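Sample A.
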Amino acid sequence: MEEGRLSRGQMTAVVVMRVLVGWHFLYEGLTKLTSEGWSAAGYLRQARGPLAGLFEWMAADAALLERVDLLNMWGLTAIGLGLILGCFTRAASAAGILAILLFYFCNPPFVGYFYSIPTEGSYLVVNKNLVEAAALAVIFVTGSGRVAGLDRILHGLFRGRARLAEA
């Protein structure tokens, strides 16, 4: 194995993780798209923590809330498809990190700050959202879409065009 390169087994594990995280995003997006009347309003209104005012403002403005809902539904779906297919994997993982961190800061798991005991999946400052953001960071830095995904094809096409332009 070359220095600084992942082994086949390591990259396989990253690809499996990418597909599983992608499935989570896709499922959440499709569930919201197919649920009549779904809105992020309730989640945003219960916001706590340092950015609560921002999230409450989003929920209070009907036009803005409609945009937030659409962005949430379609964004989660697109991120999920990108990760599962390995297509624009770095962009999908970066967008996923942004979305997950927004969810994290909407309702952070800061024990003692809001409540005295942790809830399931929230352990002091770490919760499921933070773990998934870390997984997305690994996916972002490994370029797993070029190993198993449509990014391999796209990278080959763009690399071929660059060579033609140089000639």
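Sample B.
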Amino acid sequence: MQRRAFIKGCVALGASSVILPHVSILEASEPKSKTRIFFVKNSYNLKHENKNAFTKLWVPLPLESSYQKVSDFKFNSNATNAYVTDKNSYKARTLYAEWKNGGEKILEVTYTITTYERNSDLSKATASTKYPKDVLHYLKPTAHIPTSGKVKELALKITENAKTPLEKAKAIYAWVTENMYRDNSVVGCGLGDAGKAIEQNIMGGKCTDISSVFVALLRSAGVPAREIFGIRLGSSRYSKACGSSDEKGLAKITGAEHCRAEFYLDGAGWIPCDPADVAKVILTEKMTLNDPLVKEVRDYFFGNWEMNWMGYNMARDFVLTPTPAQKPLNMFGYPYAEVEDEVLDYYAPAAFSYSFVSQEKL
């Protein structure tokens, strides 16, 4: 078997050749405290019975933001071609690789990510609904995030006594955490079809399902909101349900993808939330909303993020670059690959195949 020459890449996030996602100057200010540092290694060895077929792979990469900084990004591959791009409607940072001939299809990605505990000062929020142009995008509906029909009706019912965007967000967060529950039978992170969930009263799901309902209700009530797709990196101070590692900080994070959410308030910026992990703690710890731990987690995850997690992107119902067979793509929290025009099952890492590990600097 003739092996290809390996392609190596080292991309600095500040490089002029890479366009970074825009961060609003009004984004909520996160204190640079409770810093955590993780070394992440992603390994791919794509499997398919047709070893000579044209194979393409799109890998989500971490975004650069005020709550996470990426350094020492490198990739190593025997691909025919491989490069980093963010040419899509959400500027979702992506490593694309393609193999035009037979043989092994190998890619290794490594980087260090520094995360900062994320906290919000809700006292800075105003009642204004005059939002910046880049924020207005997150009031628009998508195929999986409708803002009309039963979704709109429910949002207006939940927020009927709320006068400000913050009051609306609190009412919707309370409703979602009281009415939705984690269903471990759902594959992966779930499809996040908020319209179907509300229209058919499907209140069980995984993190994308719960966060998408939260986002759809907020947008329907006139509050900008978005999901952020990412992955857990290490241990949580609250529960293993929210992340775990061994005593040396090593975490096998294959399958640890997790979707969080944000909503926007004038004066306070983007406010972090995680209603899905409230549901996961309830299920994993066999508790109810009235248990002290759940009360603490539920209060914390409205306005705060424990940063044993990193975010990839906010992309929903969009088209990757170069254009794949599956378009639009529902979400981009998992690696996406095609053999010719056959889409590999990204929910099945062993068959795909890929593996991820994270080592925290203790």
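B remarks: DSSP finds eight helices and 21 strands in the chain. The chain has two domains: 7-117+315-360, 122-311.
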